[in-house]
Amino acid sequence: MTKQIYPIIGMHCASCKLLIEKMVGKVEGVKSVHVNYATEKMTIEFNEGEDSDPRLLESIKHAVASAGSYKLIDDEDGKTVLADPSQTKKIESHHQMNQSDNDSHMMHNENNVGKHNHAAMLKKEEYKKLKRKVLIVGLSALPFLVVMIRMVLIQLGVLEMNHAPLGLIYLSVGGEDSDPRFQINLFFLIQFIIATPILFWGGSQFYSSTWSALKVRAANMDTLIAMGTTTAWLFSSIVTFFPNVFKDYNSDVFFEAAVFIIFFILLGRLLEARAKGQANDAIKKLLELQAKEATVIRDGKEIKISISDVVKGDIIIVKPGEKIPVDGEIVEGSSTLDESMVTGESLP
C-alpha cells in the first residue's frame, strides 16, 4: 500500500471535504482518502503498485473535478496540489505567463524544484485579497450600520423622527401626485445601489461555489449563504422597484441583512486564514530546531550526511552538544540528554 499527500489551496467549506472524499473514494484502485480541512492536505492511499498508473491519476482528477470544480493541478514547483476554481485560474495563468517567457524562466527541473513554495505564495496572495475585500465590504457596510443604530435610538426614544426623513422621500415618474405604483422610495434606492456591488462582488466566491456544487447535484455551506443573501436582496429589490406588489405599497427592505451576512462570513474566513498562517509559522519554526545533518559510520569512517539519507541500521555518532538527529537505540556510551522538546521540561 502506498500513500500520496496533496496540498490544498482555497478550500473554505467543510462539506466540500466530505464531497471530495466521497467522489475520490469511489475510484477503483483508491483504498482510502482523507481530506484534512485544518491542515489543508488530502491524503490518498492506493492499492499496492497502482499509484504509478497514469489512468488512475486521471480518474482521480475527474472525480475531484466532479466534486465542485476543484482540480488536481501542477503548480510552478512541479507539485500536484488540490485547488479551488479561483486558485486554479491563477495557477493556469502563471503557467501561461511562463510559457510565453524565455527558457530560463519557463523550465522547472529537478534543480530548481523546492527553491520556492508556489503553494505557500498563492495562499499569501489569497490572504491579501481576502483582507482587501473585507476592508472594502466593511467600509461599504458602515452606512447600513449608522441607519440601524439610528432606528434603534428612535425606537428607544433617544432620537426623534424628522418631519421629512429620507425614507419618506419618493422619486415619482409622474410628479408628486402620481400613482403610488410609480413611486420609488429614495432611501430604499440608495440602499439598493450600495448593497448590490457588495453582494455580487464581495460574495462572488459564494455564488461560484454554489454553482459548482449545483452542477453535481450537491450543496455546501456556500449554498446556504448564497440562498439567504439572494433572497434578502431579491425581496428588497422588489419592494424598492415594484411596491404595488405588496398591500398598501408598504413593506420593509432587508438589504442590510444581506450585506452584513457577507461581511461577517468574509471576516470569519479572514480570521481563520490568519490563525492557520500563524500555526503554520509556529510549526515551521519548531521544525527548524531539528538537526539537519547526522554523523554516521560508513566503511569504518565517520561522515556527515543529511538526515534524509540516514537509513535503518546506520550507526550514528552523537558528540557532546549535538542534537539527536533521528530516533534510535543507544548501543554504546552514555550522556545527559536535553529532552525538553519532548517532555516540556524547562531544564535538561
What is the overall pLDDT average?
77
Largest sheet: 5 strands, mixed
Structural class by helix and strand composition: alpha+beta
Cα distance spanning the termini: 40 Å
In terms of per-residue confidence, which ranges show pLDDT below 50 for 5 or more consecutive residues? 102-116
Principal-axis shape? elongated
Outline the structure in words:
The chain starts with a strand and ends in a 5-residue tail after the last helix. The strands form 3 sheets. Strands 2-3-1-5-4 form a 5-stranded mixed beta sheet. Strands 9-8-10 form a 3-stranded antiparallel beta sheet, with no helix packed on it. A two-stranded antiparallel sheet has the order 6-7. The longest helix is centred in the middle third of the chain and has 38 residues, at 118-155. Helix 8 (221-241) packs antiparallel against helix 9 (255-288). Residues 102-116 have low confidence and may be disordered. It has 10 helices and 10 strands. It has 3 domains: 2-115, 2-Layer Sandwich (Alpha-Beta Plaits), CATH 3.30.70.100; 122-286; 293-336, Calcium-transporting ATPase, cytoplasmic transduction domain A, CATH 2.70.150. Helices cover 49% and strands 14% of the residues. The chain is elongated. A hairpin with a 2-residue loop joins strand 8 and strand 9. By secondary structure, it is an alpha+beta fold.
